[in-house]
């Protein structure tokens, strides 16, 4: 333990602790024993205070020591918590007080349970003694029953209360004679612990021997008392359930303390609103087991001009303004069933569970603006406060909690850029562009050196036999602030800034090394590797040399590599990019046109390109399920593209295949390969290796379901 201010704090704590323990029960303790207890407790508390990060265990042990020394008065616990709040652990008195209280409560519970077990054993002993000497055993049981510190009640299996002791009467605020003759069901609390009465039914029917719950009851005066309840079943000589014995410990003070500590942990101390932790807990709960088609909405709120108030009028005035704003938002939105939380600073968020669509989310945003339309009186100042709101409304199955909050936050800044004092609705394209711009400008230049990129691989399946024909390498970015980003969120901007060159080179090196490893392990069973080639890469004169070096260093056979280019890579027969493409083919690498049908689609240029494959854009297959479009015409277009590719001698792959019926229809029209969520989402290299091995087990049948052949996962939940 260091010298200085911390040591002074320790002396103060020891002095207050000695004064606390010297009261009440402490007056009957020998001074030497009491001094030792004070020294031991304060040493443990100081150990927790000084730990970085905070370690609750020494503080919990200090609480247990007091119970072991018979300091069990709830008033002493309350005063101890107040003292510990004045001696914070690294800035948080609630942490130190909470850990101490938890240790005290756990030790008291353990002690109580030991007493309860002793009573239960005594009751059981008394029952046996009745068989040998009824009067003597009954006298002993009666003495134990009446003098016990915890409440005891005896009832029959029909639920009638036969007798209670004085302690139980005190818990319920009624005399023993008032309790006798009542039914157990008369004491039911409407907010009873789930499962209590199901367990009680099992007990009186004889299918279980005892039950134990923390549960509330109503006292005679209407107040609620919280108890720790243990009920045991007493059988007759034939094993038939005869009586039930209930033992109740009054834990109301402990329960209320825990509730206060829980409230402090989940609510903003300034405004009283749920805090960031409570908001994310509620949001994540929506994603645990959502109903099919479940939707939700977010309104991300930021006050306009709040910094000016803080800087000009002071932080105290700013805090009063935040409190007033929180009150208005809660009053306007809570009656609608929406959660209002403060995330920090002048940022608030509104969560709409079971949202009925964009209109309801927009209505909530308008309610926010309306609630803040009138000036707020703070002291003698009339402060005009406005807000900008980012609105997001989505199906739960299409996103994740983290992605949803990021999207709402970025949408908020679009609202601020548009002029403030308004709401803006989430736009997926704008969101992707904003994420991309931010990610590239802030982090991407050093992300490669930091090892933040990784590659997943998506299967391409041979439709003729369901075998794994190839895998496409898809780069991901594990961004420390934004989470895992897909290529659509950063590759476009990387190409604009030139950062695509080192990134593309890294992807080729990593993917070729992985493919070479599969070839070494599985031989001819290893799939072909497909890697996307950005336009700027294809136009780089050093591409052929780079790829030749990579193939030599990794040992990958060129025939095992196919590079995918877009239609915009080459804009005419004289384009310089054609030289690089021919140079790649001369190395033995094959080329394929990716997303065919979304670019210029000049068939003459397609004929002149040195490509051996063509991938039909996923939008063609996706449009086949759009009720607003002609499905029959869509299938004819796809069939025409397959025929065109085969006429040019190209292998054709259909992207975006989502279901079995589409896969079968594509197979019947002669499509060679297919790719999409029906066959599997992008996965880690180890999963691909497992699928290769399983697909080639000797006992595997020749004809299997296409999706099952590669172990596909059918559920797709893309991030926003």
TrEMBL record:
Domain GGDEF, chain residue ranges per copy: 294-428
SMART domains attached to this UniProt entry: EAL (SM00052), GGDEF (SM00267), PAC (SM00086), PAS (SM00091)
Pfam families, sorted: EAL, GGDEF, PAS_9
CDD domains for this protein: EAL, GGDEF, PAS
Ranges where the PAC domain occurs: 211-263
Protein name in the entry: Bifunctional diguanylate cyclase/phosphodiesterase
UniProt source species: Kitasatospora paranensis
Organism lineage: Bacteria, Bacillati, Actinomycetota, Actinomycetes, Kitasatosporales
InterPro entries, sorted: Biofilm_reg_signaling, EAL_dom, EAL_sf, GGDEF_dom, Nucleotide_cyclase, PAC, PAS, PAS-assoc_C
Domain PAS: residue ranges: 137-207
Domain EAL: 437-696
Gene3D superfamilies to which the protein is assigned, alphabetical: 3.30.70.270, EAL domain, PAS domain
Recorded superkingdom: Bacteria
């Amino acid at each position: 333990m260091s010298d200085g201010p911390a040591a002074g704090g320790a002396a103060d704590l020891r002095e207050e602790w000695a004064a606390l323990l010297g009261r009440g029960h402490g007056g009957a303790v020998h001074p030497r024993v009491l001094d030792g207890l004070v020294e031991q407790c304060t040493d443990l508390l100081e150990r927790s205070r000084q730990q970085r990060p905070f370690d609750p265990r020494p503080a919990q042990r200090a609480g247990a020591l007091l119970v072991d020394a018979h300091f069990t008065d709830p008033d002493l616990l309350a005063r101890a918590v107040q003292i510990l709040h004045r001696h914070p652990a690294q800035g948080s008195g609630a942490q130190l007080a909470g850990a101490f209280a938890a240790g005290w409560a756990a030790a008291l519970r353990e002690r109580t349970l030991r007493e309860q077990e002793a009573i239960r054993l005594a009751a059981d002993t008394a029952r046996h003694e009745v068989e040998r000497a009824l009067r003597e055993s009954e006298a002993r049981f009666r003495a134990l029953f009446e003098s016990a510190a915890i409440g005891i009640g005896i009832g029959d299996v029909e639920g009638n209360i036969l007798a209670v002791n004085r302690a139980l009467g005190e818990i319920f605020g009624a005399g023993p004679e008032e309790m006798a003759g009542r039914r157990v069901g008369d004491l039911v609390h409407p907010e009873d612990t789930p499962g209590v009465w199901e367990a009680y039914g099992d007990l009186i029917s004889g299918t279980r021997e005892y039950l134990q719950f923390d549960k509330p009851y109503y006292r005679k005066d209407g107040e609620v008392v919280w108890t720790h309840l243990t009920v045991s079943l007493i059988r007759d000589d034939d094993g038939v359930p005869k009586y039930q014995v209930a033992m109740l410990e009054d834990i109301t003070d402990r329960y209320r303390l825990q509730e206060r500590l829980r409230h402090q942990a989940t609510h903003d101390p300034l405004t009283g609103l749920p805090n960031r932790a409570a908001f994310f807990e509620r949001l994540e709960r929506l994603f645990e087991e959502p109903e099919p088609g479940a939707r939700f909405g977010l309104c991300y709120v930021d006050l306009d001009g709040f910094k000016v108030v803080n800087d000009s009028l002071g932080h105290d005035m700013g805090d009063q303004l935040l409190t007033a704003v929180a009150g208005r938002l809660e009053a306007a939105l809570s009656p609608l069933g929406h959660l209002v939380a403060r995330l920090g600073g002048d940022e608030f968020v509104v969560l709409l569970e079971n949202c009925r669509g964009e209109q309801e989310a927009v209505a909530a945003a308008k309610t926010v603006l309306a609630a803040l339309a009138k000036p707020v009186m703070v002291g003698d100042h009339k402060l005009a406060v406005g807000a900008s709101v980012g609105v997001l409304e989505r199906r739960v199955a299409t996103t994740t909690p983290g992605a949803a909050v990021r999207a709402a936050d970025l949408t908020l800044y679009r609202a601020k850029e548009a002029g403030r004092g308004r709401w803006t609705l989430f736009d997926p394209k704008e969101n992707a562009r904003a994420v991309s711009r931010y990610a590239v400008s802030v982090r991407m230049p050093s992300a490669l050196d930091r090892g933040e990129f990784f590659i997943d691989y998506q299967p391409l399946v041979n439709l003729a036999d369901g075998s794994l024909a190839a895998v496409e390498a898809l780069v991901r970015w594990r961004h420390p602030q934004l989470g895992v980003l897909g290529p659509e969120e950063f590759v476009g901007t990387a190409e604009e800034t030139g950062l695509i060159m080192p990134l593309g080179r890294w992807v080729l090196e990593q993917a070729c090394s992985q493919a070479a490893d599969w070839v070494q392990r599985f031989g001819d069973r290893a799939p072909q590797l497909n890697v996307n080639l950005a336009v700027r890469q294809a136009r780089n004169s050093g591409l052929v040399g780079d790829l030749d070096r990579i193939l030599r260093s990794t040992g990958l056979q060129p025939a095992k590599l196919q590079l995918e280019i877009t239609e915009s890579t080459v804009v005419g027969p004289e384009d310089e990019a054609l030289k690089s493409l021919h140079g790649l083919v001369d190395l033995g690498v094959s080329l394929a046109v990716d997303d065919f049908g979304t670019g210029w689609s000049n068939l003459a240029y397609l004929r002149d390109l040195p490509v051996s494959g063509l991938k039909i854009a996923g939008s063609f297959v996706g449009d086949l399920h759009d009720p607003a479009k002609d499905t029959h015409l869509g299938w004819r277009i796809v069939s025409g593209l397959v025929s065109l590719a085969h006429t040019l001698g190209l292998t054709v792959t259909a992207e975006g295949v989502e279901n079995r019926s589409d896969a079968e229809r594509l197979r019947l029209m002669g499509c060679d390969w297919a790719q999409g969520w029906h066959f599997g989402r992008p996965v880690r290299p180890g999963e691909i290796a497992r699928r290769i091995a399983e697909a080639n087990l000797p006992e595997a049948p020749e004809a299997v379901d296409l999706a099952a052949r590669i172990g596909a996962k059918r559920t797709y939940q893309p991030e926003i």
